Amino acid sequence: MLAKRIIPCLDVKDGQTVKGTNFVNLRHAGDPVELGKAYSDQGADELVFLDITASHEGRKTFADMVSRVAATVNIPFTVGGGISELADVDRLLAAGADKVSVNSAALRQPKLIDTITGHFGSQVCVVAIDAQQEADGTWQCYLNGGRIPAGRTLFDWAHEAQERGAGEILFTSMNHDGVKDGFANEALRRLSDTLSIPVIASGGAGKRQHFLDVFQQGHADAALAASVFHFGEIKIPELKQYLKEEGISIRF
Amino acid sequence: MSVAIVKYSAGNIYSVVHALKRLGVEPLLTDDPQQLRDADKVIFPGQGEAQQAMTYLREHGLDRVIRSLQQPVLGICIGQQLLCRHSEEGNTDCLGIFPVDVLKFRPTRHEDKVPHMGWNNIKQPTPNASREGGAKAGAQLSRYNGTFPFTGERGEGLSLPFVYFVHSYYVPVCEFTTAVTEYIVPFSASLQRDNFFATQFHPEKSGAEGERILQQFLSL
């Protein structure tokens, strides 16, 4: 049976992970390559590395990091952050990434999705969407890490992304992100039940139960989290054991 | 040991190269017929579209080279599909090592999304008349009678290994099936005929289990 995926996300700046981590037994806890390897050894099903560097030099450092990850890690990994044209995708795939995630650039210029999937296939293109539920109940998309409203609703944009060839949707709820009170299960369920491509849930993981809920109630295909893993609040082997005992299809 | 990877238009061979390096093997990436024939093992990887890939192989004479190989050959993902007779993708005639046709997944429930993407388990095929006949015939002809892609001791009651898949087309279960995965329908997760081995999944992305499977192929 196809397994639900558990995906740790690492934010990378100038070749180092930014959010602090208290991973035990790691000499260089800030080294994304070593951290990625540790997660993979613990049973993570995929990894996501997000480049939050703005500078040109930072981009080059990130591509170097991607090739070191590809040499070290034996599970699929996605890279994102600052991808705005086909050349960025080409460079990161050539460095050994399995998938790329596009966010603001795709909202500004939706044809980017067609271009990427036309060249490399749907399976490499993850469309990341940051959205917030407004006072009127609608889910609105935001650009630039949640700073600028994009004037599109979540469901409308997710369906357009799918039509343009996106392989997966990575939806981060800005209302839930960082709150650690569970994922946006209602919106996730609506997404997952109306899209024909996999949905990755992001934002809100605080305890193990939240992962169970996002699979059972949110119908997510995968769940992504950062700090609960980085700070060891939730340990991946224990999380996977718990989910398995609760009847979720999980890889061991 | 020398390992050659068939160099052609289908992308993402980097992960195969890296995986082999992690196993201590420095592979040769080549489209030279002689180099391919001389290698101890040949890997035919890929990710891409069947018709474009076959056109490229024919234009470069690689279709004949691959068919003529005598050493163990491992097709991966689209590599497995191209070793079959025909693919529904682009209505493409393929290499014909495995006399079976590649079909597109047709989901019957909304939960069944296409592509089949992620980790799924593989199990040994259930013996039936056609499979037994095929296995016997294969066993007589083949020098490679191992349990690939399973370890010998895997049997009833043991948990089924998980491996990583990304694909929208599949090879139906046939007499050459050596592992079965269930997604929408039961399909061939791996195939073997004589010296030709193939996996629909990506062993190079399947964690420790995938590395074990690659090592098993290298040890044939």
Any chance you could write out the topology, listing elements then pairs?
The complex is a heterodimer of chains A (252) and B (220).
Chain A: E1 5-13, E2 16-17, H1 32-42, E3 47-51, H2 56-72, E4 77-80, H3 86-94, E5 99-102, H4 104-108, H5 111-120, E6 125-133, E7 139-143, E8 148-153, H6 154-163, E9 168-173, H7 185-194, E10 199-202, H8 208-216, E11 222-225, H9 227-230, H10 236-245
Parallel strand pairs in A: 1-3, 1-11, 3-4, 4-5, 5-6, 6-9, 9-10, 10-11
Antiparallel strand pairs in A: 1-2, 6-7, 7-8
Chain B: E1 3-6, H1 14-22, E2 28-30, H2 33-38, E3 41-44, H3 50-59, H4 62-68, E4 73-76, H5 78-82, E5 84-87, E6 92-93, E7 98-104, E8 116-121, H6 129-141, E9 162-167, E10 169-170, E11 177-183, E12 185-193, E13 196-199, H7 207-218
Parallel strand pairs in B: 1-2, 1-3, 3-4, 4-13, 5-7
Antiparallel strand pairs in B: 5-6, 7-10, 8-9, 11-12, 12-13
Keywords, separated by commas or semicolons:
heterodimer, A: 252 residues, alpha/beta, TIM Barrel, 8-stranded parallel beta barrel, 23% strand, globular, B: 220 residues, Rossmann fold, 7-stranded mixed β-sheet, 4-stranded mixed β-sheet, 7 helices, 13 strands
